[in-house]
Amino acid sequence: MRHIVITGASSGFGAALAHSFYESGARLTLIARNEERLRELGQKLSADWMVADVCTDYDTLVAQVERTYGAIDVWVNNAGIGEFDRVVDQTTDVIEETMCLNATAPMLLARDCARTMRRGSTIINVCSQAAKVPTPKSAVYAGSKAALLQFSNALRLELKPAGIHVLTVNPGPIATPFFLRADKSGRYEASVKSIMLDPDRLAKRVVAACEASKREVNAPWWMELGAKLYAMCPVMFERLAKRGFDKK
């Protein structure tokens, strides 16, 4: 039975991943800051759980999980935040927290996992389509996710000889509580409600991709197509997509 560890697991996409991995027959260790929701989900899925903040506990977290619950087969770096606002209006605290949760902590946790994982293990980093196509009012969020995506691409090459796989998940907007903080006005969430991804369906895709050792999960398909066009013709794409960019 595979041992799956998920950060940011108490709600949203992390909880959806927990359900999907549980349905696949995995043994779970769930990590988050909200003890009440974590305990409830842990009981429902017969999972182990640990209250921790990846931005303050990253130095010992992997070792603590291994010592308490055993060797790790899949580590999912899912914990993350975003605040959609102009850079000039964002505080230093918000920028530092975003970079830590979305980039620095996942990098350090992936490093520690890579030091002890067995052949056939997988590190999953939840990135974003924003890592490929940045938009106004998401400069810090996009920058943090782009850092994690490029880190993951390089780490995949480094760990291939050791038989450890790296999977990145690059979703567009997902129907989760993420937007309670990211979009306090609610305007952006309302404007993209019709195209939001279902977290449960996406989670099932991630589990299948993990089992098949896929390189990436990109959703929705048309955003990934847009990302490829942006990479080839950024100036033209920015002009054509301006209306969509301005939704934030």
From TrEMBL:
GO CC annotation: membrane
GO molecular function terms noted in the UniProt entry: oxidoreductase activity
Annotated CDD domains: SDR_c
The keyword ATP-binding is annotated on this UniProt entry: no
Source superkingdom: Bacteria
SUPFAM superfamilies in the cross-refs: NAD(P)-binding Rossmann-fold domains (SSF51735)
Cross-referenced Pfam families: adh_short
Alphabetized UniProt keyword annotations: Oxidoreductase
InterPro entries recorded: NAD(P)-bd_dom_sf, Sc_DH/Rdtase_CS, SDR_fam
Family as reported in the entry's similarity comment: Belongs to the short-chain dehydrogenases/reductases (SDR) family.
PANTHER family hit by this protein: DEHYDROGENASE/REDUCTASE SDR FAMILY MEMBER 7B, DEHYDROGENASE_REDUCTASE SDR FAMILY MEMBER 7B
Protein name per its UniProtKB record: Short-chain dehydrogenase
Organism: Exiguobacterium chiriqhucha RW-2
